[in-house]
Amino acid sequence: MAKTYTQYVCQQCGYTSPRYLGRCPSCNAWNSMVEETVTPPSKQKQRTVRGLIGKSEPIKLSEIKEDGDERIHLPIGEFARVLGGGIVPGSIVLIGGDPGIGKSTLLLQAAMELSKKERVLYVSGEESERQIKMRAVRLLRDSKGEKLSIPEKLYLVTETNLDVILAHIQSLKPEFIVLDSIQTTYLPQMESSAGSVSQVRECASRLRELAKSSGISVFIIGHVTKVGTIAGPRVLEHIVDTVLYLEGDRFQAYRLLRSVKNRFGPTSEVGVFEMQDRGMVEVKNPSEAFLAERVVNSPGSAIAVTMEGTRPLLVEIQGLTSSTTFGNPRRTPNGVDFNRLLLTVAVLSRRVGVRLADQDIFVNVIGGLKISEPAADLAIAAAITSSMRDIPVRADTALIGEVGLSGELRMVGQMDARLREAANLGFKRVIVPKRLRGKRAWKADIRVVEVRSLRDAIKQAMLEKE
Ligand code: TYD
Ligand code: MG
Question: For residue 46, what pLDDT is reported?
Fold first, then answer.
């Protein structure tokens, strides 16, 4: 048998070093190196790997058959949208997210939908069979609270040894597999503990081999974990075809399923769900949901139109200013980028003449959404100014535009889609940056007010008498 040795592996990025290092030279993370035992691959292992893949041979690209865009229909529309329209056979999808955010719930729901037609194996290393059964029963209620029956083709196994799991897959021959979670799964041949970078990576590559050679679609659940403890889904991103993150505020009901990598579809696509007592319920019209609790005509609130992937979303942004009591004024963003907030505040003070130097500023995006797009700058600026001056933003007006350093309003992309969404939700006016090129009619039934500067935009938004 080959001699084993130990090495130190960064649990953040997978960098290896023969000795301990306080700081990973590759990703600069502190205290992330963990000792792992390595057994050099023996001849026997190499043989099994070759046996799995079979003989490979170069063939002409032109001679490869096209399957078209063959996808398996997934009845959960928001999930399917994030995957790019359905499940690609033989694909391997990683779903990451904080513990308790709803990954197991969502995948159990997907498994139950899929198992109405195909055979599905749900592998759990986290919960017992009874716990999963209890959850399944809870999820199987329709909107009126009526019980639905559990699909016959859904199989369950609680197992963490990947060799055993693979054997189950061979005998059961399912169409889909859900593995909950990659951090609890291990290969007994490897010395390191379950959840370490090398285990997680090796298990995932085994599953990839399985998916590619058999056409089974695999869903892997991975926890995003605190720094350095166990390996997060980050090390897996290049192994899998699609990476989805489930995110959201734990104290709010909305959950966003976001694609950050997708070999079979667009990225940055977002699916919106609401966590209810019968599981994750699709939110078909998220803008409407995000605006549901809006108090019309109250100061400090503005409506932004942001794009999440290809979908426009209207969100309420709230701003609050209050006099600073001690020394430094504070800027507290919730859901918007800190630096964009600082920039917007600086432009407001210098170019628009809103005095904010002695004000604490709080900005909040309603619904637990995180906006990284500059197109929301104008709404952030308007919400802050509105609170500062105690004048409400007009209730029938939505705001779009990036704020530039000289106080100008800059154009953003996909205007037509944004305008259409605002019109759909009953907004009458929308304030947008002035077009400098390409004049054509806006393709939406809404009054479009084009302005050049942030100052004008805010004036238009609040209809101040100045
Ligand atoms: P879970 O799917 O176990 O999270 P994860 O797998 O990402 O760790 O979700 C757990 C949370 O979801 C838990 O706090 C309870 C809540 N929940 C509901 O609100 N409604 C439901 O129907 C279910 C099944 C869970
Ligand atoms: Mg779970």
Answer: 53
